[in-house]
Amino acid sequence: MIASLDLHFWYVVMMLLGLSLTFAFPMTKHFSDPQDRRRYYTMQVVTIVCAVLGAKIAVVLGDALWPLKEFHDWGALLTGGAPSPAHCCSGFSGRGSQATAAI
After folding, report:
1. Residues 6 or more apart from 59 whose CB is under 8 A from it?
2. Cα separation, 97 vs 103, whole angstroms
3. Percentage of the chain modeled with pLDDT above 70
4. Phi, psi of 58 (to 5 degrees)
5. Which among 89, 96, 101 has a CA at the least distance from the CA of 35?
6. What pLDDT, on a 0 to 100 scale, did the predictor assign at position 23?
7. Cβ-proximal residues to 63 (8 Å cutoff; 6+ apart), any chain
8. Would residue 1 count as lying in a domain?
9. Residue 55: which residues within 8 A CB-CB, separation 6 or more?
10. Domain limits for position 89
11. How many domains does the chain have?
């Protein structure tokens, strides 16, 4: 018999592990100029805002089938639910550090 796996518990564990690794190994420690660090964090904020907006657009196009079907409850669709934080924050693993160094 296979034991039941509590996905919610393990999701929380993985999110906390990811956040702890983010704070344990900061990607900005090699920036000597505070202005470079500020630009890096600005890029991260832009990334998370665009990820949330992209998730909402995906919900509008995928779940509501708009514009293929008429939809009337836009307020509930746009404010309800939340995009997966794992998907929104997965870009914060340091892969963007080379791109921001070129800015």
Report:
1. 77, 81, 83
2. 10
3. 71
4. -65, -35
5. 101
6. 85
7. 77
8. no
9. 83, 84, 87, 88
10. 7-101
11. 1
| pTM for this prediction | 0.52
Tell me how far apart the 2 most distant CA atoms of the chain are, in Å. Answer: 58
Confidence at residue 99, expressed as pLDDT on a 0 to 100 scale: 41
Amino acid at 37: R
Torsion angle (degrees, nearest 10) of CA 60, 58, 80, 70: 10
State the burial class of residue 36 (Cβ atoms within 10 Å of its Cβ: 0-12, 13-18, 19+).
middle
Instruction: Give the phi and the psi of residue 95 in degrees, each rounded to 5.
Output: -65, -20
Within a domain: 49:
yes
Please tell me the predicted confidence (pLDDT) of residue 29: 84
State both tokens at 34. 């505070």
Chain centroid to CA 51: 6
